Amino acid sequence: MRAALANSALIASRRPAEWQTEVTALRAYEASDLPGVVQAWNRALAGGANFFPLTEDCFQARVARQPSFSPQGLLVAAQGDQVTGFVHFGPATNFWFDLAERQVTPGEGLIWALVAPPSDRPLAGDLLGAAMLRLREAGARRILLYPSWVQCTQPFYNGIAGGYEMPGISASREEALALAADQGFEPIAEYGTPEFDLSDGDRLAALRAEAVRIRLRMRDTGLEPRFREVTSAFFPPRRAAVLVRGTETIATTAYGLWGEYAQAHGRRLYGITGVHVATHWRGLGLGKLIVTLALEAALAEGAEALHLHVYRANAPAWNLYHRAVGFQPRHTWLTLAAQV
Q: Which of 139, 173, 180, 270 fits 298 for a cystine, CB–CB 3.0-4.6 Å?
């Protein structure tokens, strides 16, 4: 088979000659491709640890109906009427949901999703190469592959079915990393997605005891815990746990149920996001305390486990979650970049 990119240059195929029996066309997404795109996603990702079937309604809501979605940035691979895979890409931006606030980073492009059958590496390579060609033609000099959950960089697939695997850069997916390396991508950052199993009574008891000691040390500072609802374009509804002193916010985090995962897997997994401690209050254990407050509140709501995302290079945060609080390694993800 050979992949041809409609209305642009041909993508050089890396397929053995004996495979070149059918033509796979790469073309811009059309509304009629919706069922095929969803089926291609489900076929490619079925069996993954975080997978549950994608629906047409979900894809429409999360991707096709978003204000910054452009069909020209979603190329589908089609053999006749059958969609066999797709790649979704566009400019690097800071915002996507409010076009009035959207700012493009000059010279950078992003690939949001790369979907192809696991056994068809040549097709995946053709799709990736086509996206890189289009981005280069649009002025990109650097192209990035981020994990799907990184806020403001993977907006279309944040939380969507199987989105953790997009665009295929879990550190455990050696075939995807090799494919990216073939196209000139190199790792530039590492992330962890650790978990805290709330059924671990010993770890919970130790964390609670440490939280009591921290609060005793801080009892004369006037710090008080508060909880409030939080809404975000990037996440489902959450609640914020906040430490305040008067009108000053000292520490904060947010937590909430990953509803799609819970529905698919029958496990109430909660996410922790946005842990912050005011600069002049750091080093006092308040990061551990605010995470513990969120943990206790999530547990009261029926949470069975917590997870979060953290940059490997962010040593204070990495140490807080893994060493001080007791989150255990679960997944490792990479950001890759290619100069074009």
A: 270
